[in-house]
Structure formats: structure tokens, C-alpha cells
């Protein structure tokens, strides 16, 4: 059961006060009868609520995979760049929160959801969920220097201004200037700072997977899709 004005604000673009106004203006019917009382309790599964001819229904929890392009930020507040949620054409999109953040210049797999518990399972350090990044590096890493870097990353690196080393991580060189780094934490700018600690610099960064969930190759930068039930169940 739910108050009618709340139901309207959850299922349409109306705010709670605009919902009350729409009710007063006679724009709403309940089971075919005009209704004006905001406080009416409705059965959200069985009652039929129609606003200006459109039947309304509650949306369930939503789980989105976005191929984040560069120059898009994860913040909910409007800033210098478009927000990730601005790319997603869904009602009440501001309810979706990014599941962990990517820097404005990082591309790749960004998850968004309104399911706080699921988000916590993905991001909580306790769950040690592996995230895979591909970094284009400014300085080539080869031979003994590459072996040294791989060992440092496996042992844990001390990042500037931090008191504990990074958790053991895996570095794989795909070419002298392209590296795949798998980490299980989400410290601030972690990947860029790890390469800085190795004396290198990240020119560009892309996240390809989170746990067993891999960015869908059918999604071009800026495109998104809902996760399947099997994908949601991975976490
Ligand atoms: N590490 C970074 O440095 N940047 C990101 O966007 C993600 C991880």
C-alpha cells in the first residue's frame, strides 16, 4: 500500500507537490474513477492509476551497464561536464547512483543502480571484487624494469600520502606501453597513483571488467543497457 501522491511522484516525472496539484486538477483516475485525495492509500500491485490517459506502474530496482566515454563525470551534481546519468534515457534517472567512480578522463565499464545493497556488495573492500583496467603508459616498461614493476604491484605499493600499502594486485604488460592492472580496492585515483609510484604516467585509462562482469563489446562509448538477471546475480 502507498499514498496516492507518493505513488504518482514515484512513477511519473511529477514531484510530490505537482502530483497533489494534478490530483486537484482532476488529471488522475483510480480504477476508472476520478480521484482528488492525495492521502488515498492504494494497492500498488492491483489498483489502476491513470494520469492524463497514461497508466502508471512502479519501476523495480534498476541495474545499468554504461560504456562511459571521456569527458563525462560520475557526480550526481551538474558540473563542467555532462553526468553519466545524462546519457541514460530512463524515468527518474537521478535515482541511479554510480557503483564506484571513474575519473572524468577514464573510459569503460560503469555500473549504475538504485539498489544500495547490491552496490555495496560490488564496492565494499571486504568483498575484494577484482576490477580490471587497461592503461596506456607514457614510459615503455620492458625487461628487468617490467619484472620489477610486476613484483612491486604484487607485493603492494605505498601511495603518496597513504599509511598502508595497496593490496596485492596483478600487472600484465600487453605491450611495452600498454598494461592490464587488476586491483581489488577502489582508492582515490588508485590506478594512476600506482603507476606514478612506479615512476610512470597513465596517458589514458579504460575499465574493462568488474568481477566476472565484462563491458559488453556491443556498447559504443556513451551507450548503455540494463544488466541481465544472471549478471545482477554475479554480485
Ligand atoms: N583509478 C584511477 O586512477 N582512475 C579511475 O578512473 C579508476 C581507477
TrEMBL record:
Keyword Isomerase among record annotations: yes
Reactions listed under catalytic activity: uridine(516) in 16S rRNA = pseudouridine(516) in 16S rRNA
EC numbers on record: 5.4.99.-
Parts of the chain that traverse the membrane: none
InterPro entries xref list: PsdUridine_s_RsuA/RluB/E/F_cat, PsdUridine_synth_cat_dom_sf, PsdUridine_synth_RsuA/RluA, PsdUridine_synth_RsuA/RluB/E/F, PsdUridine_synth_RsuA/RluB_CS, RsuA_PseudoU_synthase, S4_RNA-bd, S4_RNA-bd_sf
Domain of life: Bacteria
UniProt GO MF annotations: 16S rRNA pseudouridine(516) synthase activity; RNA binding
GO annotation terms (biological process): enzyme-directed rRNA pseudouridine synthesis
EC category name: isomerase
Functional summary from the UniProt entry: Responsible for synthesis of pseudouridine from uracil-516 in 16S ribosomal RNA.
Designated name of the protein: Pseudouridine synthase
Gene: rsuA
